[in-house]
Write a structure and sequence with these properties.
Blueprint (H helix, E strand, L loop, with lengths): L2 H13 L2 H8 L3 H15 L4 E4 L2 E4 L1 H29 L2 E8 L7 H12 L2 E8 L2 H9 L5 E5 L7 E15 L21 E4 L4 H13 L8 E2 L2 H9 L4 E5 H5 L7 E4 L5 E9 L6 H17 L5
Parallel strand pairs: 3-4, 3-5, 7-8, 7-9
Antiparallel strand pairs: 1-2, 5-11, 6-9, 6-10, 6-11
């Protein structure tokens, strides 16, 4: 049976008459009758008999309807899915995110997005920079959210925010309590070191090298959040991104920006060969709005 024949047969069987089926399908009665007769000719048997002026399904029609009904529902589901994909209200988003963005920005963005787009599903992975880039090239993810990413052949970018490095410290570390710090004020300080975390750590290292600042480092960690928490336990100072500095953690800490600021881009990366779906584009808009709301200016 052809698609149109399935649609007409389902409508006539469900509504009980050609006239009702025509109204349901928004077509003329002759059009319904023509499609129904053609289906019966192709099948080689009647689907309905007229008994006392009414259409009565044949045994063959009863047998077919169970299967046809399943197909019909699948067609409706497919049509709905196609409409939702066009409008960006349904779909699946595969994300890889740097840990700092997973603290508050990403969870709140997803929560707000799903309130407006309940038909969307997410697959979220926390990965370091190199693994994220590999996943994009191998099409394991749709979007990679990163700080200050390098330019990569075949990857496009959507910049949705700016951030800056800040120094997280004990409130008594700087008695004069300046609004901002010069990197030279960290000379000889016990700074918790961050193991290579990609372009962001490269940016910081280059700036420290340019300023000729020498610091002591007894502890090296892999994430800015661990470094920030170590500061809370009195283990020294740490230079981290703004989002990590704002996150809750042990102890009492403060954070200050630098003069001049050490800034970085907050960016979504995706493969040029696989343009973003409508639902992914919509989500990036939510992400941008939440980031702008949550990031606190460094003093």
């Amino acid at each position: 049976m052809q698609m149109k024949q399935i649609e007409v047969f389902h409508a006539v069987y469900s509504t009980g008459s050609v006239s009702n089926a025509a109204k349901f399908l928004h077509v003329s009665q002759p059009a319904v009758s023509k499609v129904l007769h053609r289906a019966e000719d192709q099948l080689g048997y009647l689907l309905f008999k007229r008994v006392k002026g009414k259409l009565v399904p044949t045994d063959e029609a009863h047998s077919l309807f169970a299967e046809v009904s399943q197909v019909y529902q699948q067609i409706l589901s497919l049509q709905k899915k196609a409409r939702n994909l066009k409008s960006g209200t349904a779909g699946h988003i595969r994300l890889s995110v740097m840990p700092a963005l997973g603290l508050n920005v990403l969870p709140l963005s997803i929560a707000r997005f799903l309130e407006d787009h309940p038909g969307v599903t997410f697959d979220i992975q926390t990965r370091h920079y190199d693994d994220m880039i590999r996943s994009l090239y191998e099409h394991e993810i749709d979007i990679g959210l990163a700080f200050n990413p390098d330019n990569h052949v075949g990857l496009a970018r959507y910049e949705f925010g700016q951030g800056e490095f800040v120094c997280v410290h004990n409130p008594e570390s700087f008695p004069k309590n300046p609004d901002r710090l010069g990197l030279e004020e960290l000379e000889g300080k016990n700074i918790i070191s961050i193991k290579d975390s990609g372009p962001l750590s490269d940016l910081l290292f280059q700036r420290i090298l340019q300023e000729g600042v020498s610091t002591d480092s007894a502890i090296t960690v892999q994430t800015y959040y661990i470094a920030k928490n170590l500061v809370g336990y009195g283990m020294g100072m740490a230079i981290v991104d703004q989002l990590t500095a704002q996150a809750e953690g042990p102890g009492k800490t403060s954070f200050k920006g630098f003069t001049p600021p050490i800034t970085y881009a907050v960016t979504g990366l995706y493969a040029e060969s696989r343009p973003l779906s409508n639902v992914c584009q919509n989500f990036l808009g939510y992400l941008k709005q939440v980031y702008e709301e949550l990031v606190q200016p460094a003093k």
